[in-house]
Amino acid sequence: MRHRTLGPHRVSAIGLGVMPLSIEGRPDERRALATVHAALEAGVTLLDTADSYHLPGAEPGHNELLVARALATYGGDTDGVVVATKAGRGRPADGSWTVNGDPRHLKAAAEASLRRLGTAEIGLYQLHKPDPAVPFEESVGALRELLDEGKIRLAGVSNTDSDQIRTAHRILGDRLVSVQNQYSPAVRDSEAELRLCAELGLAFLPWSPLGGISRSALDGPSRTEGEGRFGAFHAVAHERRVSPQRVCLAWLLARSPAVIPIPGASRPESIRDSAAAADLVLGAEELARLDGTAAPVG
C-alpha cells in the first residue's frame, strides 16, 4: 500500500468510506465488520464516517459505533489508523439530508462522536456541509474551539467551494488538513478546489469517487456501467485484467498527489479490490484515454 499525506500523518493512498455499512441496503453486522477488517488487512489506515450515517429517523451514530467495534475486534495493529468523522447533517424519518452548522450543534455532536468512538480525541473532524442559515466563519469557528480544547486533533471541511476553503484555512491555519468534495469521472465540478488543495498542502478526499463507473451507495446497490461516456475505463480495465473500479481509483490518484480517494464498500472483496488501486500505476497513454489529457492537476 502506498501512502499519502494528511496533515502530519502518512495514511494509505486509498481510504474506506464506511457509510454503505450503515444506511439503506446495509449488510448485516458480521459482514460489515468483516469489510472493515478486510480494509485494515489490506493496509487501509483512513476510515471515513459521520454521525449522520444511519437509517432514516434512527439515532445518530450507527456508523461511528460500527467503526469503534471493528477497531476493537480487529486482531492486528490499529495504532496508525486515522478515523475521520463529520457533523452538520441529519437524517430525519423522510430519508432526506438536513444541514445544521450551528456552532452549538457541532460542538455537542463532537462530544457525542467522542463517546461513540471511545477515544480521547477525534483524529479528523470535518464540517459535513456549509449551512446557508449560519455564517460559514461561525461553523468553522466551532472547529477551532474544538481544536483548542483538544477534543479533535485535526479539522477538515466538506462540500465547500474555493472561497470557503480559503476562509477555513485563514481561521484554522495548518490545523485544516483536508477537503472532502464529490469528485469522480462523472462529476468534476471541484477541479478548482482540487488545485487549491494542492497549492495549500491540503488532502483532497473525493467522496463517491466511482461515479460513472459504479453507482454511489446513495443510489442503491452498486452496478457496473460498461458502455457510453466512460467506456475507456472499462477498456483499460480489460487490457490490464483488473476491475474498472480499480482503474478509476488509480486515475484519481494520478490526478494529483493531494488526492486520497475514500471509496465505499459493503463486502470485503470490494475494499480489497479498491485498496489494490494504490499499486496500479497508469501510463501516460492510458491517462490520456481516460481523461483526454495526460497532464495531472496541480
Strand order within the widest beta sheet: 3-4-5-8-9-10-11
C-alpha end-to-end distance: 23 Å
The low-confidence parts are 216-226
The succession of helices and strands, N to C, reads EEEHEHEEEHEHEHEHEHHHH
Shape: globular
Number of helical segments? 10
Query: Helicity range of the residues?
Result: 25-40%
Helix-strand category:
alpha/beta
**Biggest β-sheet: count, sense, barrel?**
7 strands, parallel
Strand portion, in percent? 5-15%
Rg value:
18 Å
Number of strands: 11
**Whole-number average pLDDT?**
93
Q: Would you write up a description of this structure?
A:
The chain is α/β, with parallel strands linked by helices. The protein has ten helices and eleven strands. α1 (about 30-40) crosses α2 (about 60-75), α1 packs parallel to α9 and α4 packs parallel to α5. The longest helix is centred in the middle third of the chain and has 15 residues, at about 105-115.
Q: Tags for this entry?
A:
298 residues; alpha/beta; seven-stranded parallel sheet; two-stranded antiparallel sheet
Furnish the topology, listing elements before pairings.
Layout: E1 3-6, E2 9-12, E3 16-17, H1 29-41, E4 46-48, H2 62-73, E5 82-87, E6 89-90, E7 98-99, H3 103-117, E8 122-127, H4 136-148, E9 152-158, H5 162-172, E10 176-180, H6 191-200, E11 203-204, H7 231-240, H8 244-255, H9 268-275, H10 284-291
Helix pairs in contact: 1-2, 1-9, 3-4, 4-5, 7-8
